[in-house]
């Protein structure tokens, strides 16, 4: 068995292994999962000459710290945060060489919610259904990191010693206002005309109750036109589901693949990375998709 290359010194609030997920298994009841901010995950891999499929660590709000058990190269992308190596400042968004024994720390996010720590060669967790991603809903993939965990890395890709040099990482900043385009349906007819108007004009904010499964929102309730519930039906990534309290939930990567609450609309996938970085209290505005 390959020798572990990393030891978790501080796991943080929630740090998981993520890649591009396991699409194509919804018929088995398995969500896609994968990095919530996929562009930030891909950027980390691109800076290290990894393929986009290589696994990274996704941190949540408080960051994490790892000790190199062998020489390696790492990079931190996603939510901006203080980066240190053995307590000394290191660059965010640029590859950093770590000698054996050095501790890399991605501190609390200063803006946004989720940072990504990539390593040359990628995190070599055991694949499940073709992916190394942690799925919090189904329990597939490696468990969320704990202090003292040890992780393996794959062999580095590309030319040894040659890593991308950039002055600034080309990445979209976390939103001060989250604007989400929405395509109506498939159950928009389950809501009153007033509810459809409220969806695109209401004062919504990100709730602290959200997670990798869904972005929960605080704000005005959406009134239904019918009583009762639907039979369970398929749920898409980005579905805006409305539970009985009337407050919308935008489904993210670990969402259930079926559900019985009506879906008033769907947010296109390319708008969801910004949702992954929206902190509690961030204003949210739905607009008709063009």
Structural commentary:
It is a single chain. The chain is mainly β and 290 residues long. The mean pLDDT is 94. It folds into 2 domains: 6-151, Jelly Rolls, CATH 2.60.120; 178-288, Cyclophilin-like (Cyclophilin, Beta Barrel). It is built from 3 helices and 20 strands. It is 8% helix and 27% strand.
| Physical arrangement of strands within the biggest beta sheet | 12-19-16-17-14-13-20
**What does the radius of gyration come to?**
20 Å
Total number of helices = 3
Poorly predicted ranges: none
- What structural category arises from helix and sheet content? mainly beta
Main beta sheet: 7 strands, mixed, barrel
Mean pLDDT: 94
The amount of beta strand, in percent, is 25-35%
Q: Under the CATH scheme, which architecture of the largest domain would be assigned?
A: Sandwich
Shape: elongated
- Total tally of structural domains: 2
Annotation, overall tally of beta strands? 20
H-E order: EEHEEEEEEEEEEHEEEEEEEHE
Helix percent reads under 10%
What's the CATH first level of the largest domain? Mainly Beta
CATH topology category name of the largest domain: Jelly Rolls
Distance, first to last CA = 52 Å
């Amino acid at each position: 068995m390959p020798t572990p290359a990393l030891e978790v010194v501080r796991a943080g609030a929630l740090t998981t292994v993520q890649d591009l997920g396991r699409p194509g298994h919804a018929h088995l009841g398995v969500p896609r999962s994968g990095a919530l901010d996929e562009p930030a995950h891909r950027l980390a891999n691109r800076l290290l000459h990894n393929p986009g499929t290589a696994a990274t660590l996704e941190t949540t709000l408080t960051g994490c710290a790892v000790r190199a058990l062998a020489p390696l190269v790492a990079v931190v992308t996603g939510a901006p945060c203080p980066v240190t190596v053995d307590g000394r400042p290191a660059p965010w968004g640029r590859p950093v060489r770590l000698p054996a024994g050095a501790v890399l720390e991605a501190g609390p996010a200063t803006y946004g919610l989720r940072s990504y720590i990539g390593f040359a060669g990628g995190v070599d967790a055991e694949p499940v259904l073709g992916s190394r991603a942690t799925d919090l809903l189904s329990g597939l993939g490696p468990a969320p990191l704990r202090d003292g965990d040890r992780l393996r890395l794959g062999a580095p890709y590309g030319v040894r010693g040659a890593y991308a040099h950039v002055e600034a990482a080309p990445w979209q900043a976390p939103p001060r206002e989250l604007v989400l385009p929405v395509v109506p349906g498939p159950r928009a007819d389950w809501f009153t005309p007033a509810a459809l108007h409220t969806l695109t004009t209401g004062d919504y904010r990100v709730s602290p109750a959200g997670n990798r499964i869904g972005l929960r929102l605080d704000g005005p309730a959406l009134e239904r036109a019918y009583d009762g519930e639907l039979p369970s039906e398929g749920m898409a990534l980005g579905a805006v589901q409305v539970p009985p309290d009337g407050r919308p939930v935008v489904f993210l990567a670990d969402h259930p693949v079926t559900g019985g609450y009506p879906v008033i609309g769907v947010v296109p996938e390319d708008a969801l990375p910004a949702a992954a970085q929206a902190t509690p209290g961030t204003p949210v505005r739905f607009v008709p998709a063009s």
